[in-house]
Design brief:
224 residues; D-Maltodextrin-Binding Protein, domain 2; six-stranded mixed sheet; 10 helices; 11 strands
């Protein structure tokens, strides 16, 4: 067995709401992280598991794809919003985990929405943390998108005059409503996916395929 195969596999998991939704599947797949993983006060980011050859790391959702693409993690859980935005060729996403359901939508102040028709736009200025998805979406119908990149507090942009519209991740729509915004167009539906580093999948195919199978069984069990 070569040195690469002797290294532990690393599974990257996203912090926040999606982590809570995906952990039942992770545990059904047979992975139980060390106790510190569930300790809100723990500062470490890498954790051992009950599987001697597997560690988990906990990182920001946008960073999961980067860790997997560049080989820092062999497997990961990422929303297809992240996968679409970065479009890393080094990532293979073999399994929809059927969690993290939400959507990427265009929104604007409710005062404007009644008379606005997105089909008539020739150009649009938006605030978003998804400039890649946004530009590609509008380019498909010949609309020029001027994107203001923000990493949070998107709903403030129309209030403070940065732009009229935003493109953001929407779950319940409560945050939009609280800030006087309404959805006027859905770009795509989002779920979380099991992702795999393509190089690792080639060099450690037996291990990777085993975990893909385990996660697939876990998803089926959750749905039953």
């Amino acid at each position: 067995m070569d040195a690469v195969s002797n290294e532990k596999l690393v599974l990257a998991l996203p912090k926040g709401r999606i982590l809570k939704e995906v952990m039942p599947i992770v545990r059904r797949a047979g992975i139980e992280p060390e106790a510190a993983f569930d300790d809100a006060d723990a500062r470490q980011l890498r954790f051992t598991t009950n599987i001697p050859g597997l560690d988990v790391i906990r990182v920001r959702s946008f960073d999961v794809a980067t860790f997997v693409a560049f080989g820092g993690a062999h497997l990961g859980v990422a929303g297809n919003d992240v996968l679409m935005e970065f479009d890393y060729q080094e990532i293979y996403a073999p399994l929809d985990l059927d969690v993290g359901h939400c959507r990427i939508s265009v929104a604007e102040p409710a005062d404007f929405a009644g008379d606005d028709d997105p089909a008539r736009w020739s150009s649009v200025r938006v605030a978003t943390k998804y400039p890649g998805i946004t530009r590609r979406h509008f380019a498909r119908r010949g609309v020029q998108a001027d994107c203001i990149k923000l990493n949070g507090a998107m709903e403030l942009a129309p209030q403070l005059g940065l732009c009229r519209r935003i493109v953001d991740l929407v779950s319940t729509g409560a945050t939009l409503k609280a800030n006087g915004l309404v959805e006027i167009e859905t770009i795509c539906e989002i779920t979380s996916r099991l992702t795999v580093n393509r190089a690792a999948w080639k060099t450690r195919s037996a291990e990777i395929n085993d975990w893909i199978g385990r996660f697939g069984e876990a998803v089926d069990a959750e749905a039953a």
